[in-house]
Amino acid sequence: MSTSKSAVLTFGNGQSVEFPVLSGSMGPDVVDIRQLYAKTGMFTYDPGFMSTASCRSAITYIDGDKGVLLYRGYPIEQLAQQCDFLEVAYLILNGELPTREQKANFVHMVTRHTMVHDQLARFFNGFRRDAHPMAVMVGVVGALSAFYHDSLDINDPRHREVAAFRLIAKMPTIVAMAYKYSVGLPFMYPRNELSYTANFMRMMFGVPTEDYVVNDVLVRALDRILILHADHEQNASTSTVRLAGSSGANPFACIASGIACLWGPAHGGANEAALNMLEELQREGGVARIGEFIKKVKDKNSTVKLMGFGHRVYKNYDPRAKLMRETTHEVLNELGLGDDPLFKLALALERIALEDEYFVSRKLYPNVDFYSGIVQRALGFPTAMFTCIFALARTVGWIAQWNEMISDSEQKIGRPRQLFTGPTRRDVVPIAER
Ligand code: CMC
Question: Which of 50, 237, 300, 305 to mutate to test the pocket of ligand 1 (most atoms within 8 A of CB)?
């Protein structure tokens, strides 16, 4: 981080204050306003963090105008094509791609932590079977802190490392358990000889009465989905994890808070919402009704949005969406579903939206969630599970960002300020006189 530049803020009363400007290795410079309140008695106002960098980070870089996404400097396209999910997880957590030996050790550690405490299995019985699996995920992942007391000391690097392995390893087991519980099927124990993703698919779709046959094309597709969702710099759920962690909360509690935030339809819940939108449009007439639907989306008085479109940072095609579209093709072809009407509808909707002035002028492009629902549905995941898969993948990013925050000497407890607009001081009138 270099600081050779500065910015001067001039106020109406003629007061001028100089602030350092910090440069990262890429991306816009930032004005360091940490001394603003001390020097001027004023705060900044930036709801939604439209112009605020909340931390420094060396993990993920996005150039939203160019549609670029890099994990630790490596383009997402190269990682998605040449690496598997655990290799990418190692990279995100440690900063470098693993050697063969490092990868083998990492895979070994993750594989040996996949089982959950047996008592945790009974924890599920407290939930209604029709609970949304994300509600179950928030509860069960938060409850991990009640089971693994030997990895809660955030100041002990070994505890942090063990917590990271536990979270990455147990997340597929917990997601699969949430699914099995919802459909009343027995939980499947993990199998150590399978890859991370194949093991997850077996725990999801296998049953104890017969062997599960792994389909490598489908496993590779899901692995790619996990890679594409592994991290995305300071998004809402990651910022939530950092904020929760800034108070010293334990990692399991922090990740549970991230899952809760991810659930919202403007964030991770968009994949479920996008598929629901496509299905509804299909039921109402499909391609023939796109014009009418787009009209509703553009109507200022309607609350209808084109789910899976638009992004706070990408003002260009989300690079993950391109890869996801490719993966959708591969999966549908493998399953003999090349004529899937929902995929055709999505392609038509995308084409029409990309030519429409409303979307062009606002730079609204498909994001990762536009296609991820179609491919996940083809893989056999029920719609309600989509965001759980996102949470599974993003756990890697959340942990890496949480770790980075804990090790950052400049990080303080997150404590935003406010512009107060409520009543000024007044006295309580006794209830009899009100
Ligand atoms: N459909 C219709 N109009 C939209 C959409 C959309 N999907 N997204 C943005 N707009 C309009 C918005 O109404 C506004 O119009 P105007 O300037 O006339 O008021 C303009 O575009 C700018 O949008 P914004 O809401 O100010 O942008 P934002 O950065 O606050 O919101 C977003 C970003 C992702 C929340 C939003 O685009 C959205 O709600 N998209 C649909 C949900 C979705 O797909 N979310 C997944 C995001 S990617 C996965 C993830 O990271 O979780």
Answer: 305
Q: Dig out the tokens for 64 from the structure.
A: 């939203």
Looking at residues 373-390, what average pLDDT do you find?
93
Q: Whose CA is nearest to atom 24 of ligand 1?
A: 312
What pLDDT digit, counting tens, does each position of 105-124 carry?
999 999 999 999 999 999 99
Is the CB of residue 309 below 6 angstroms from any atom belonging to ligand 1? yes
Q: Does residue 232 have an active-site annotation?
A: no
Query: Would the CB of 128 count as within 6 Å of ligand 1?
Result: no
Residue 230 predicted with pLDDT over 70 = yes
- 278 CA to centre of ligand 1 in angstroms: 17
311 is catalytic: yes
Is it the case that residue 4 has pLDDT exceeding 80?
A: no
Answer positive or negative: Cα dihedral of 372, 378, 384, 388.
Answer: negative
